[in-house]
C-alpha cells in the first residue's frame, strides 16, 4: 500500500526504528541454519548469532519457521542459483547438467560458508512436518527442472528418443545430494569434480 501524507502516524506515535540491519541479520541466520540444520538451531541460537533479541526477531521475521523459509529464499538467491542458471543458459541438456554438477562441486566446497547444500543439511533430523515438506518440495522442483531440460534435449534430437528423462533427472539429483553430503564430510572440490565427471560418463548419446 502506498502511504499518503494523511495516513502517516502522528509525530511521536511512530514505531521505533530497527536498531539492526535486517539484511545482515538474515545472512547470519542463513549461516546458522546452513551449519546446524533446522532442528538443531534454536531461537536462542538465532538471536545470539543475529545479534538481536527475541522480540526483534519475531517483529522482523515472524517465528522460527517463517524466518527459515525466508532464509531458504535468500540462500537460493545468493548461493543456490547456479543450477537454475546452468539449466537456462547452456545450449544442450548434457552441457547444462555438466555445468550444474561442476559448479556444485565448487559451491559446496567454497570457503567462507558451510559446506554442502542448505536444503540437504537443514532437513537432517527435522521433526517439523511443514518444514520437511517445504524442503522436499524445493528438492523435487530441482529434479523436475532437470527432467524438463532433458525432455527438451530429447525433443531437439540431442539425446536418444528412448531416454528416460525422469530416471536420468532423479539420478542427477542423487549425485548432487551425495556430493553435498560428501562436502560436509570433507571431500575436496577436486574429488567432487571427479565424481561429476564419472556421473557424466554414463550420459546417453545419440
UniProtKB/TrEMBL annotation:
List keywords of the entry alphabetically.
DNA-binding, Transcription, Transcription regulation
The Swiss-Prot or TrEMBL record marks DNA binding at 42-61
Show the InterPro entries listed in the entry.
DNA-bd_HTH_TetR-type_CS, Homeodomain-like_sf, HTH_TetR, Tet_transcr_reg_TetR-rel_C_sf, TetR_C
Recorded superkingdom? Bacteria
PROSITE patterns attached to this UniProt entry: HTH_TETR_1, HTH_TETR_2
Which Pfam families would you find in this protein's record?
Answer: TetR_C_13, TetR_N
Provide the HTH tetR-type domain boundaries: 19-79
PANTHER family per the record? HTH-TYPE TRANSCRIPTIONAL REGULATOR YJDC, TRANSCRIPTIONAL REGULATORY PROTEIN
- Protein name per the record: TetR/AcrR family transcriptional regulator
Amino acid at each position: 500500500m502506498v502511504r499518503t501524507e494523511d495516513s502517516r502516524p502522528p509525530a511521536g506515535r511512530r514505531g521505533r526504528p530497527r536498531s539492526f540491519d535486517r539484511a545482515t541479520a538474515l545472512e547470519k541466520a542463513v549461516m546458522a541454519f546452513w551449519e546446524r540444520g533446522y532442528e538443531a538451531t534454536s531461537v536462542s541460537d538465532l538471536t545470539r548469532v543475529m545479534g538481536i533479541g527475541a522480540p526483534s526477531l519475531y517483529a522482523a521475521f515472524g517465528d522460527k519457521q517463517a524466518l527459515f523459509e525466508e532464509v531458504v529464499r535468500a540462500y537460493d538467491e545468493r548461493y543456490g542459483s547456479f543450477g537454475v542458471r546452468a539449466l537456462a543458459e547452456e545450449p544442450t541438456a548434457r552441457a547444462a547438467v555438466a555445468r550444474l554438477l561442476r559448479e556444485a562441486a565448487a559451491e559446496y566446497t567454497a570457503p567462507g560458508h558451510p559446506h554442502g547444500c542448505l536444503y540437504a543439511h537443514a532437513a537432517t533430523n527435522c521433526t517439523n512436518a511443514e518444514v520437511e515438506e517445504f524442503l522436499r518440495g524445493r528438492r523435487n522442483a530441482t529434479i523436475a527442472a532437470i527432467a524438463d531440460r532433458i525432455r527438451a534435449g530429447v525433443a531437439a534430437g540431442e539425446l536418444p528418443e528412448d531416454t528416460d528423462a525422469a530416471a536420468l533427472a532423479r539420478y542427477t539429483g542423487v549425485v548432487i545430494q551425495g556430493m553435498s553430503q560428501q562436502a560436509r564430510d570433507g571431500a575436496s572440490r577436486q574429488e567432487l569434480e571427479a565424481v561429476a565427471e564419472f556421473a557424466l560418463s554414463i550420459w546417453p548419446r545419440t
